């Protein structure tokens, strides 16, 4: 744990400290940031406070007095309700504004880990609680150089599996064989396993109207066959099977034939146009050291798609943070589902994935962007044309 770096960030944010709290391991962010093993017993509440200046201090229950072993600072022990309340006052003595894993109106649910009752308890000491969202970005979401390399390697492997999947569909069509969304889902998962990749669920393989469900996932029963003149969307995400590995997450679309319908081609061009405008906006800002926020990237993409007449069919945010989980804890590109006003900072990664979802088909185009100290980059292949399958 980087006490000095955390305290420097607290001073820059004009905060008096950062209060961590957990019960039954409800806050995985706390364990990662504090460097606590996730296997620790937590049947009783513990608190740990890092002040902007001075020594950290903790509060643990008598039954689990070793809950914070290994962390620096004085540890007070409580057992009764009254002693717990006194202990929180001890932790926060002299503080006025403290950060916790909280988000006003739950605008950023990824960091809104502390329950309302605990917030009331802490506010009862007289402090103001602010969101730790910007701090979480700094101390949980930034990648190491090794993680970036693992992401790039995962991308190369995932892109090969993705290309193989479209070729597999094409080969089945040429041979006159029936192949389903579910069979392609299994083909991709087998490809991941052979390539040393792991994932938590998915992938999405969707045909025609199923493409218009952004979280569609085929099942063994009832999945659609893939036939000539069908549109196909494949969304796949995976990471290397190594500790600390981070995800790579992309979406590509194709048409089973050589001449896509004009409506399909038009929507593809609108979606990729919105994607490319977001990419250029981020690249331009980062290269000039301009401060930008997640909601601004969403505005750029959404503004273009809306101008083209498809705004009502773009029903989700432009992109999400990417980390050791496919949905990470840094800024999302979002001014629809939430107003994400977190800064986009160096050493973080996120998706750019606009989509337009019509009754008969949907198109999404997804790339990943990594923010370096001097420039932003798309970390894998970029789809420029609809794939002509078979």
Topology of helices and strands:
Elements: H1 3-12, E1 17-22, H2 28-34, E2 46-51, E3 57-61, E4 74-78, H3 81-91, E5 97-100, H4 116-123, E6 128-131, H5 133-141, H6 145-175, H7 181-194, E7 197-198, E8 204-207, E9 231-240, E10 248-255, H8 262-287, H9 294-307, E11 321-322, E12 349-352, E13 355-357, E14 362-364, E15 367-371, E16 376-378, E17 387-388
Parallel strand pairs: 1-5, 3-4, 5-6, 10-17
Antiparallel strand pairs: 1-2, 2-3, 7-9, 8-9, 9-10, 11-12, 12-15, 13-14, 15-16
Helix pairs in contact: 6-7, 8-9
Number of helices: 9
Mean pLDDT equals 96
Q: Which structural class do you get from the secondary structure elements?
A: alpha+beta
- Rg value: 24 Å
Look at the structure and give the CATH class of the largest domain: Alpha Beta
The global form is: elongated
Strand percentage lies at: 15-25%
Give the strand order, joined by hyphens, for the main sheet.
4-3-2-1-5-6
Helix content: 25-40%
Number of domains: 2
CATH topology name of the largest domain: Creatine Amidinohydrolase
* SS elements, strand count: 17
């Amino acid at each position: 744990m980087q006490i000095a770096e955390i305290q420097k960030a607290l001073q820059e944010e004009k905060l008096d400290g950062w209060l961590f709290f957990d019960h039954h391991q409800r806050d995985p962010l706390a364990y990662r940031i504090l460097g606590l093993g996730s296997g620790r017993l937590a049947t009783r509440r513990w608190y740990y406070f890092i002040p902007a200046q001075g020594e950290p201090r903790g509060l643990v229950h008598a039954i689990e007095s070793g809950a914070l072993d290994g962390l620096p600072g004085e540890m007070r022990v409580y057992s009764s309700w009254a002693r717990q309340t006194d202990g929180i006052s001890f932790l926060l003595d002299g503080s006025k504004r403290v950060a916790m894993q909280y988000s006003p109106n739950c605008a950023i649910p990824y960091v809104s880990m502390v329950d309302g009752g605990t917030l009331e308890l802490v506010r009862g000491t007289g402090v103001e609680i602010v969101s730790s969202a910007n701090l979480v970005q700094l101390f949980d979401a930034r990648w190491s150089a090794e993680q970036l390399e693992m992401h790039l390697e995962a991308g190369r492997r995932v892109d090969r599996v993705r290309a193989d999947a479209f070729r597999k569909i094409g080969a089945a069509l040429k041979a006159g064989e029936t192949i389903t969304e579910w069979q392609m889902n299994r083909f991709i998962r087998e490809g991941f396993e052979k390539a040393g990749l792991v994932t938590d669920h998915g992938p999405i393989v969707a045909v025609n109207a199923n493409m218009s469900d952004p979280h569609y996932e085929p099942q063994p029963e009832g999945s659609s066959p893939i036939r000539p003149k069908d549109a196909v969307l494949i969304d796949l995400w995976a990471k290397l099977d190594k500790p600390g590995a981070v995800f790579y997450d992309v979406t590509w679309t194709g048409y089973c034939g050589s001449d896509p319908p004009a409506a399909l081609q038009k929507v593809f061009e609108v979606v990729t146009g919105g994607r490319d405008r977001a990419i250029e906006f981020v690249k331009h800002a980062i290269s000039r050291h301009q401060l930008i926020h997640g909601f601004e990237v969403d505005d750029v993409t959404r503004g273009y798609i809306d101008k083209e007449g498809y705004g009502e069919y773009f029903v989700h945010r432009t992109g999400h943070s990417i980390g050791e989980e496919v949905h990470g804890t840094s800024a999302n590109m979002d001014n629809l589902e939430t107003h994400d006003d977190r800064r986009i900072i160096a050493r973080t990664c996120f998706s750019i994935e606009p989509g337009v979802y019509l009754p008969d088909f949907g198109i999404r185009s997804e790339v990943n962007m990594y923010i370096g100290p001097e420039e932003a980059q798309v970390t894998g292949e970029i789809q420029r044309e609809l794939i002509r399958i078979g």
